[in-house]
Amino acid sequence: MTGTLVLAGTPIGDVADAPPRLAAELAAAEVIAAEDTRRLRRLTQALGVHTTGRVVSYFEGNEAARTPELADALEGGARVLLVTDAGMPSVSDPGYRLVAAAVERGIKVTAVPGPSAVLTALAVSGLPVDRFCFEGFLPRKPGERRSRLREVADERRTLVYFEAPHRLDDTLAAMSEILGADRRGAVCRELTKTYEEVRRGPLAELAAWAADGVRGEITIVVEGAPETGPQDLGPDELVRRVQVREEAGERRKEAIAAVAAETGLPKREVFDAVVAAKNAARTGPAEGK
């Protein structure tokens, strides 16, 4: 019989939030794959758990190489427990490769539910929670970051991001510029920890606050784009929407059709706006006499 892969949710801050099943799974696992074996040791000590299984490291640097080894152990009947530093494995953490390998081999995959920075930040943000979209970490390079933000500029669902503290000011400044200075947001810092802080306000204000430097684990929540009707969209906005889709890989014809569908405008009107912008860019501004 094949074994079982258990994804173990771990506390995002306060160790008292550990789910009761976590201690039992740590004690019973034959193999424990940990993102950081030192943190695992501190966690088991805090929970009063004695582990008997083999402990191996499983982090970004060795994830690809170690996945086949763990998949073989699972196929051989082992119960493998995967733990990351905080939260649920494979959600912006190591784990996806191993889950995919286990599924491909027909091995059972289950989970010990635990605290989630995504849902916790969303719940305390004060922003709409009925529909949301988790975007993970934005690219580190400014150009790629801006391009990714342009892709979601018209997303109406609430957006949730992770970010490193030393990049927070640049990220919030880019969000303010591309998503809108008045768009509401919330920066959730050190959730469930001693110095927990939730800073709410327009993106421009949050960017100014972060410019002085912020420490700790960061989750950003941003409200979705406001609904707009055809009467609110001028040629410049139509051109921008087409450009966003083209930058994402769509052909111009497909992008024009998609923008027409989402705005309720005739395709010809969107096409004419794109052509006019292209001609204006080619000829440049008219010279004064």
Describe this structure in words.
The strands form two sheets. The chain has a five-stranded parallel sheet with strand order 3-2-4-1-5, with helices on both faces. It has a five-stranded mixed sheet with strand order 6-7-10-8-9, sandwiched between helices. The chain has 289 residues and is an alpha/beta fold. It has eleven helices and ten strands. The N and C termini lie far apart (86 Å).
Descriptive labels:
289 residues, alpha/beta, five-stranded parallel beta sheet, five-stranded mixed beta sheet, 11 helices, 18% strand
What is the radius of gyration?
A: 24 Å
> How much strand content do the residues show?
15-25%
Give the biggest beta sheet.
5 strands, parallel
Q: Would you report the number of β strands? A: 10
Encode the helix/strand succession as letters: EHEHEHEHEHEHEHEEHEHHH
User: Helicity, in percent?
Assistant: 40-55%
Q: Class by helix and strand content? A: alpha/beta
Strand order of the largest sheet: 3-2-4-1-5
Tally of contiguous helical segments: 11
Ends distance: 86 Å
Query: Whole-number average pLDDT?
Result: 92
Shape: elongated
The residue ranges in which pLDDT falls below 50 over 5 or more consecutive positions are: none
Can I get a quick summary?
The chain has 289 residues and is of the alpha/beta class.
